[in-house]
Design goal:
With about 150 residues, this protein is α+β, with helices and mostly antiparallel strands. It has one domain (about 5-145): Electron Transport, Fmn-binding Protein, Chain A (Pnp Oxidase, Chain A, Roll). The protein has 3 helices and 12 strands. The strands form 3 sheets. A 7-stranded antiparallel sheet has the order 3-2-6-9-10-5-4. Strands 1-11-12 form a 3-stranded antiparallel sheet, with no helix packed on it. It starts with a helix and ends with a strand. The mean pLDDT is about 95. It binds flavin-adenine dinucleotide (FAD). The site of flavin-adenine dinucleotide has 21 residues, from strand 3, strand 5 and helix 3.
Length: about 150
């Protein structure tokens, strides 16, 4: 099957946007991701999918912890930065929860310990057991057909 056809089909699924953060060997690393979902309520589990070319893969494999930061519609610049879509450097304001770097003013920061991982094709799936959650008010940043958007209510 053609790669473009597969990408176009996946792009029809509207998602929110997250930045995954972690800290490995005292260095903070972030990466934009929309392959995220809730897995289980008891225990509280989530899943993310990291491409094998992403530097994040080695970082999470080392740290065995990650944070899912769900972005608001005022954080598009952060999404573009952590996806490597912009050249200019951006000063990023990390805060810390339970010794993990989180992105300030996200709609939610979901701190996880890696429970298990599965190599599937050119990605690795990490199941995270949730240890801490912070919630903030705001509207979500969205992603559909390769473009950022906002939720239009009403
Ligand atoms: P790099 O490319 O090295 O880093 C990414 C960017 O983050 C660089 O600009 C870097 O300077 C910056 N950065 C990293 N750490 C810091 C720090 N501590 N302080 C300041 N800046 C920092 N890929 C997936 O594997 N899975 C997905 O689910 C996924 N979803 C995506 C969804 C969207 C909407 C987009 C746009 C991209 C998505 N990607 C996904 C692609 C992924 O975001 C990029 O391929 C990314 O560049 C890979 O990051 P990396 O870990 O290789 O790190």
């Amino acid at each position: 099957m053609d790669d473009r056809l597969f990408r176009n089909a996946m792009g029809k699924f509207a998602t929110g946007v997250t930045v995954i953060t972690t800290k490995a060997d005292d260095a903070v690393h972030g990466m934009t991701a929309n392959a995220f979902m809730s897995v289980s309520l008891d225990p509280k589990l989530v899943i993310i999918s990291i491409g094998h070319k992403a530097r994040m893969l080695e970082k999470i494999t080392t740290s065995k912890r990650f944070v899912v930061n769900i972005l608001s519609n005022e954080q598009k610049d952060l999404s573009m930065h952590f996806a490597g879509q912009v050249k200019e450097d951006l000063a990023v304001d990390f805060e810390t929860i339970n010794d993990m770097p989180v992105i300030k003013d996200s709609l939610s920061n979901i701190v996880c310990d890696v429970k298990s991982s599965y190599v599937e094709g050119d990605h690795t799936l990490f199941i995270g057991e949730v240890t801490d959650i912070v919630l903030n008010e705001g509207e979500p940043l969205t992603y559909f057909e390769g473009k950022y958007g906002k939720v239009v209510s009403g």
